[in-house]
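Supplementary Methods S3. Input chains for the assembly prediction are listed below.
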Amino acid sequence: MMPQLSDSSKKYTVSVIGASGYSGAELTRLLLRHPNVRLQELYAFSQAGKQVNDLYPSLSCGKSYLPYSGQQESDLYFLALPHGEALAHVPDLLRAGKTVIDLSGDFRLKSTLEHEEFYKQKKSPDAVMTYGMPELFRDRISQETSISNPGCFATSIILGLAPLFLGESGPIPLSAVNCTSVSGISGAGRSSKTELSYAEMSENVRAYKVGVHQHTPEIMQALGSSATTPSFDFTFTPMIGSLVRGIYSILNIRLGSPEKTETLKRIYKSFYRNAPFVRMRESMTEVRHVAYTNYCDIHIAQATETGSVVIVTAIDNLLKGAAGQAIQNMNIMLGLEETTGLLL
Amino acid sequence: MMPQLSDSSKKYTVSVIGASGYSGAELTRLLLRHPNVRLQELYAFSQAGKQVNDLYPSLSCGKSYLPYSGQQESDLYFLALPHGEALAHVPDLLRAGKTVIDLSGDFRLKSTLEHEEFYKQKKSPDAVMTYGMPELFRDRISQETSISNPGCFATSIILGLAPLFLGESGPIPLSAVNCTSVSGISGAGRSSKTELSYAEMSENVRAYKVGVHQHTPEIMQALGSSATTPSFDFTFTPMIGSLVRGIYSILNIRLGSPEKTETLKRIYKSFYRNAPFVRMRESMTEVRHVAYTNYCDIHIAQATETGSVVIVTAIDNLLKGAAGQAIQNMNIMLGLEETTGLLL
Amino acid sequence: MMPQLSDSSKKYTVSVIGASGYSGAELTRLLLRHPNVRLQELYAFSQAGKQVNDLYPSLSCGKSYLPYSGQQESDLYFLALPHGEALAHVPDLLRAGKTVIDLSGDFRLKSTLEHEEFYKQKKSPDAVMTYGMPELFRDRISQETSISNPGCFATSIILGLAPLFLGESGPIPLSAVNCTSVSGISGAGRSSKTELSYAEMSENVRAYKVGVHQHTPEIMQALGSSATTPSFDFTFTPMIGSLVRGIYSILNIRLGSPEKTETLKRIYKSFYRNAPFVRMRESMTEVRHVAYTNYCDIHIAQATETGSVVIVTAIDNLLKGAAGQAIQNMNIMLGLEETTGLLL
Amino acid sequence: MMPQLSDSSKKYTVSVIGASGYSGAELTRLLLRHPNVRLQELYAFSQAGKQVNDLYPSLSCGKSYLPYSGQQESDLYFLALPHGEALAHVPDLLRAGKTVIDLSGDFRLKSTLEHEEFYKQKKSPDAVMTYGMPELFRDRISQETSISNPGCFATSIILGLAPLFLGESGPIPLSAVNCTSVSGISGAGRSSKTELSYAEMSENVRAYKVGVHQHTPEIMQALGSSATTPSFDFTFTPMIGSLVRGIYSILNIRLGSPEKTETLKRIYKSFYRNAPFVRMRESMTEVRHVAYTNYCDIHIAQATETGSVVIVTAIDNLLKGAAGQAIQNMNIMLGLEETTGLLL
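Predicted structure tokens for the full assembly:
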């Protein structure tokens, strides 16, 4: 929280570093109409100098992308940079007393070992910030001036599992979790790779990074476990399919002892009773239910007599999985209503 | 096998009952250019009277759909009817000495109990025919005059699991299998449901029938187990996504004791050494690799030290998952080369 | 204008009749967050009784669809009904002093002859309301209590041609206009037709109603001409393609004498100088530039020495082509800022 | 025709230069199963050294791409290279007595002026080969040993217009032709451009090169006119849409004097009476009718009393628009049945 800025009608000045990618564009869209924000600068690197309106005509924004060289004019900075690049800018911003929300993976993991194994990048042990998942850590977030915003797959999976691990009456014993997720292609960023071209990805589905995706340690850490010394068997198979936006996760859980569907629903509803963006769904959810929204829909699809549970979650990867959640964190940090500017 | 028809240059007369759906159209396409077939009649019900060329202009076929009222002019009949409708026609055809390949679920399950639970339809105990999955039951198929052709999801899952259950050196002990599959929308048939319209299904993913899909008992039966008294924990979550053709299955397997990836590869390669349509892939497979082909691609994606295995399979649901496999069965039954007319 | 309601902070009560289709859902979305509106009732017919949230989970709206039997509780009514059905409700609403915006074709055409030829429905000569295209008729709209909202194709074509016909310095002589438009499939409404299923429309383009589309007379009327006695040669070829939202129109115009591109740009910019939702684009426009916005983008793509001109326009068919334009009309009628609630 | 090779059961040796792009892959697919062909080498440049099966797993072909350095081992060579690159290889092949079919634009245009204006590349006046459109120039093609294969847009437009220009009873007077075409994205080649990525092109339509597309002079030349001194007003607006394969062309024609639809149908049917791959359609055609086939479907959609005519054509851009037509030319040149290997 920025205590000096508690008046809900006040306008906070905000800039975005790395504004020209898909997450940055989505942040721009949300910030342009946020009632408590005055959007100042949009910084970019390869796209610096270009007009926002040329890259994203749907934004209809008169600004240009500026090169970033350490400017500090705003109250709050979002960083939407490729992994490894936020590290160079965050410390200076924090020293200058700025509020920072970083959308990369640079500050998510406490374990240097796991960071280096999964990101293949060096990391200093103190490059950690509070994990900005409001449904789990709202109180802590409200006390912070810097936040590491969760990954998109991680959001869809953690929200689907958290009530089992972090519920009031303690963790439900379980022995295995197998996650299979389909992501929209925008999750790969604004890209010029042949393998992400329309001609290759239309009418297609492809798994990738099976067992080695960098969101694995992030998921385990948020659930109070670890990717290197897991307390249960965990696999994660990410896929991309023929869609631009959305993540759809199928969570196969093996409980220590069976639970009835109704019991699980009660646990989940209680856990999310104060979460305005989590919707427990009685019927099956699907990607189009959450596309262009900040909701995470959760449906408990199966709970067998032998303890097998299937849970389905859906989010928009660019909103609840990135820019929307970042704004949600900003709202909490600034003492605003959590949903401000996010009920589309 | 039809012993009277062993000459490989001979033309067999073939008709299709239920020819106007997507599987029927794909059968028509394949039969029109099969070197050992003379396609005689295309029978349909709601579409009877219409020209094939009007419903499927890409077929460029001069025939019309005829109503079926028990005609028996051909050597061999394919039935591509909705579940529950083949039952009325198959016995008469068999009595008349015809060769029959049925693409519905009517004759797949030995267990009346499981059939009635999963299909919600009555069934007599003797309505069972040999299960037409050539990679598992080629010899038996070659002796038969009637075959029940496998389901599309079932094909993609059984082929991905069979070497673990039916390999030469006996079954590999395992405790759980979680299957998650994305299917193309053509799997739902030629449909006028709002929920399958382009406006609802573009950029979408949706799970359905979680834990209750009718291919569940078929899969268990083919693997030597049972849906009602399973010997291991089994879940199956089918999804449809924004694609017309293809099934992509992620198989999460929990082995009794860990196996190395190389060991598994050896087991799979050995099992499929004579299977011309199964391709073991060293790198990740994807739907477009198999679209418009009769191949099933299998990739062993992960095998952990704790015994978790992730296997990925891909097929074209209308070919290896329906019409292509049916032609493959026909070739075997007629004593022809298994790949005849199927190397597209 | 409703003179009794001139205070811009006042909330007007609004209901929608025919709220369960795609245009109705888009109206609902816009009205729910419009700062000067209190959304009262959502009326539907075949979907009456269902919860909004079940049909459109992305709306996250607690309301249910009610059957409509003449209720008159609101200040203003939107009607988003199939053609021919608004006629039964509008007169009563007007008699009761309600403000009415009708999205159907029932009140668009002055010519009974043309209405009956193109809609194949009877019509009385007085079933005409002011044509709600703000860029052409803003002043008249601001004086009205009932408005007929334009068709989607018509909007994309009229806005691309109007400066040539209705510009300040009089019409530019021209001999022919050939319009070719690609529409998203949502333009066909929430549908259960096989020909609009995903399996039929993915990776497809199809023309339909060539020369007989009901927007033809609407276009000619707005331009001051007529479909039955046209003052220039006019053809219109509508198509649907593999997209949900958007209309992309290519307008081939044959001028009486050549004009330079720069002259045309000047004419268009002048004509639209006060139009907040028309954007003259220097570079090529495309559908994704306007999707999910109320903008109409116009690009003058070619102007040859022989007088051939090619103009390209893009809109979102559900917004500027339907619900967005309806809200724009409402704003003008209520004396609000034209863009209120529409800058997404 | 290669007179020395008239035996229809003989196998001709064939190689492809530039085999790794989409047209090259489609040629490979067709040649692998062509009954009169023995496919020898697949030459590539940036992809040289890679296995065919890695780039195109659906081909299931054991070959690797070889670098091309002037090899001349085959009877016949297809060149599927970017514009400007065939020029370096064709003369040597012709000198060595090889049969050559070039899919680029290098040898299509007689006018050096037009070539240099539209291709922005230098050209020598003798770099012209017979234009390989069998429906127009079958006899000439059958006498040739080298052929320039038509462009994809050009094919869809020329076939839709040719009967008006080149019919038996002489040209039908006309004053203007406006062509608007939607192409699948594979027409842009195997690409890594951001603007062709799935995230940018899903649910999109975009025009490009309006009035300056390089197929313009090719179309005019084939119709006996010229792009620089046209005998009628001609515009061409190419678009790409959200589909991989297919070209859909809307041809707006202004006749000198009106013709009845029936008269036009008679003219077209007569013109194409010996063309096995042109189908005159009584009802509307669409892309999926011709996808994965070598057909060109033509539908006469409108013919008004004032002489406006709308004709709709559909082809698969990779087949009739590239590789399929190239094989059709090969069949004619080799004295084989024109449809050999092309009835899919």
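Residues 153-315 of chain A form a domain with the Dihydrodipicolinate Reductase; domain 2 fold (CATH 3.30.360.10). Chain A has two domains: 12-149+322-333, 153-315.
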